[in-house]
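#struct-help
A.M.: can someone run this one for me? Single chain, 180 residues.
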Amino acid sequence: MNKDNISGLLTKHLALNEEVCHVADDIESYLKKNLKPINPAKFEEIPNNCGLYLFCYNEKIFEIEALWEAHLKNCANASPFNKSKSKKCKSIDGVGGFPMYIGKSEELKKRIKEHWNLPCDSTTKSMRLEIFLQKNSFDTSRISLSYIDLSEFGMTAKTYYVTSALERLLKDKMNPFIGR
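D.P.: on it. Structure tokens below:
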């Protein structure tokens, strides 16, 4: 491969990267606009396709930090509280909630349900929100959820790397306070 070929490929790559950033902005807007109070009874309506999802906490972040640390002691594989991201995390305009967790999955319904009700003894990382809310006598109104089914746009397991790139861009921009 010569320098002209490398230059051409890099130019195409940079243009594609810029487009992915624009798509991430559009997905962020979509997720924010479609946040709804979490309703486990409606989880069966979630498609089990490739997609991205956003959980929001509808109260002040400082309220949850110590409670989440106690949650981690009870559920060792719960997703960790990220103190550095919590300092950068901003309230979502028009919603008032704070980005709590952003994720991707090849099976949206399955993964969202894991974040809700996976038992503490499971080795899979997840938030285990049902346990957290019950332990702290919080009702479900404290958590909102939004997701986007990317299979509608042709995303599949073969193109999952793009979903990973979109997730990373959203995490870097929105600074959810749970997870890595």
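A.M.: thanks! Strands lie at 36-37, 51-57, 98-105, 143-149.
D.P.: also worth noting: Helices lie at 3-33, 61-74, 83-88, 108-117, 129-135, 160-174.
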